[in-house]
Write a structure and sequence with these properties.
By secondary structure, the protein is of the alpha/beta class. It has twelve helices and six strands. Strands 2-1-6-5-3-4 form a six-stranded parallel β-sheet, sandwiched between helices. The longest helix is centred in the last third of the chain and has 21 residues, at 217-237. The radius of gyration is 17 Å and the shape is globular. The model has no long low-confidence stretch (mean pLDDT 96).
Length: 238
């Protein structure tokens, strides 16, 4: 197996977010879908294992870690949204600049408008990359240069997994930044309001995946129905 839950170092509770050191830090999340994907994508598996911080964004990951008696046994799920709120509130208290890289111009405009209200002490800059599976060398250079020029105090990358994690990992040494960088995919859409997040009851009962499946069955059935069965099979193999 390219990635084993038993060997991963995960943030075990929300207090662990406050304990993260300052400075340049690559923060990724892992859920059942990304765990499955990493079994057949060597670069993605490497990106998750060699990033600085890995957060358990899935109740299935939390339960599997306990069942496998893994090195890390998270107390509960820490969603990408939790990371986003924690880091944005922390930056807002002291003031600074946040850079959002990913998604469409429409989504980024909505993010910027909402952030101006929610986080008035944060200056927001954005960059919408071309919508394509892979970027050219010139496109990658333009993204890196835009981030470096902004010199943010917080960087978010949202291009869905595994693209966002692989991009951040591959270009990490080119990014001359001094801040935390989180790969948070769907959070861009949730925050912009273009995709509705599951209500609190569904979240509390570890059913956020079910809510998304009911809302978008044609797009999500493969990830959640086949994917959940595959996740159980992969954890059994571990």
């Amino acid at each position: 197996m390219l990635l084993k839950l038993t060997n991963l170092s995960l943030v075990e509770n929300r207090q662990g977010l406050a304990a993260l050191p300052e400075g340049k830090l690559l923060i990724n999340t892992i859920n059942a879908h990304s765990y499955n994907t990493a079994q057949k994508d060597k670069l993605f598996a490497e990106a998750l294992q060699r990033g600085d911080v890995l957060i358990p964004d899935g109740a299935s990951i939390v339960k599997a870690c306990r069942w496998l008696n893994a090195k890390s046994k998270p107390a509960g799920r820490i969603a990408g949204w939790d990371l986003f709120e924690f880091e944005m509130n922390k930056l807002n208290r002291r003031g600074g600049k946040c850079f959002f890289m990913g998604s469409s111009e429409k989504v980024l405009a909505l993010v910027k408008r909402r952030a101006a209200v929610d986080f008035p002490h944060i200056e927001v800059e954005t960059y919408s990359p071309p919508y394509k599976p892979e970027f050219s060398e010139e496109e990658n250079r333009a993204i890196v240069e835009a981030i470096n020029k902004a010199n943010p105090d917080l960087l978010w990358i949202g291009m869905t997994a595994p693209k966002q994690e692989k991009w951040a990992y591959t270009h990490w040494n080119e990014l001359n930044i001094h801040c935390h960088c989180g790969t948070i995919g769907a959070v861009f859409d949730f925050y912009a309001g273009t995709v509705k997040r599951a209500p609190a009851w569904w979240q509390r009962h570890s059913l956020e995946w079910c809510y998304r499946l009911l809302k978008e069955p044609r797009r999500m059935w493969r990830r959640y129905i086949i994917g959940n069965l595959l996740f159980m099979w992969n954890t059994c193999k571990e």
